[in-house]
Amino acid sequence: MRKLNVIIADDHPIVLLGLLELIERDGRFNVAGQAVGSEGLVQLLEKQPVDLIVTDFSMPADSPYGDGLRLVEYLKRHYPSTRILVLTMVSSPLILTRLHELGVAGIIQKRHLHNEIETALNAVIEGMEYQSSESASKSLNDSLLTLSERFAKLSPKEHEILRLFVSGKSVSDIARGQKRSIKTISAQKISAMRKLEVKSDQDLITFCLEANIFM
Predict the structure, then answer these.
(1) What are the Cα distances from residue 76, in Å, to 81, 104, 181, 189?
(2) pTM here?
(3) Most exposed among 17, 45, 137, 156, judged by the fewest C-beta atoms under 10 Å?
């Protein structure tokens, strides 16, 4: 059986070195290239197609390819036959669900990298999708309720409030523009976030911006 060629990408040299050692320990894989950002990753892919990409989710985004969901979407569009394992510290169900919908081979929480990389590589060899033990229970719920279904649960007012909030307006700004109380706007925003299973403003903004929702 031939070795599968891999490109790894992470903007932290220590993580990159650790990842290199962990993968090369597995005789079924050969690390064909390393990158510290999305631009370097794509440049390597343009020179040599590989079987697997292992990339950090959050890297410097000052490149034409960005990072996060934008990068994964680019990779899936231009290299559809290449499997992708994503390393992340993100726990937002919205973002994790979107990654699964994009068809990544698996998601590994960075804090569990040393414990989970071998199992994830085994899944790649077997042509299966890897699910970390930490996200298994979340993934079950995510599979039952797609993102579009979650957004469909929003009332028109909740949808409009989130749109305005993601565009940069504060709750006070929205209340003033809608001629409603801050308390009412805040309650509707919280209700919308609960329906979307988002726990923080940052998770909400990150997902909507990267997935081009409300854009």
Answers:
(1) 8, 8, 44, 33
(2) 0.69
(3) 156
